[in-house]
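Hi V.,

You were right to ask for the full record rather than a summary. Here it is.
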Amino acid sequence: MKPQPIQFATPADDREELARAEIYGLLAQLFVAPPDAAFHAQLRVAPTEAPTPGGFLEPAWGEVVAAARRVPPDAVAAEYDALFLGVGRAEIFLYGSFHLAGALNDRPLVELRADLRTLGLERADGVSETEDHIASVCEVMRFLIAGDDPEICNLEQQRRFFRIHLQTWAEALCAAIEAHPRADFYRAVAGFLRAFVEVETQGFDLID
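Predicted structure:
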């Protein structure tokens, strides 16, 4: 099945835009840490219909729900630690710089920080992850969709940020997770991220 591009909503009907923002927020929550018991319980009982209209996302979202029902919270936490934390060195890095430049804290992070300054955004105090962590990038996309400053939170800013800071490396991250033998719950999450990025890519292409 080919991805059906999102038809970006008009200001008068922003339900689809808010749904997009919610998906970015959900992905950020899943990647910043393993789901706690309450969040895991919500995933287990979630409807398997896609969180946003469009059948292309439904199989991938259904896999996330099925994985939550199959893998208990402690096993998900152990999987997260094994994949993304590790002892000394992570098995899979969740940082754009690594996938774009082959090293952490490299030029892609410098360029991202410059763009974030232009947007008036900066890393919150107490946050240890650098800004090119996939969760942080998804949070910025959520802000650019749902924020209330039209000078910053608009479709053109979304498209530019997405193309430079997410589309360029999301595929590599998803492939690394899906290929890892320890991945189970996060294989499903990676599949959902991949499907969503494909839909977003086609949607942004339509407004060229």
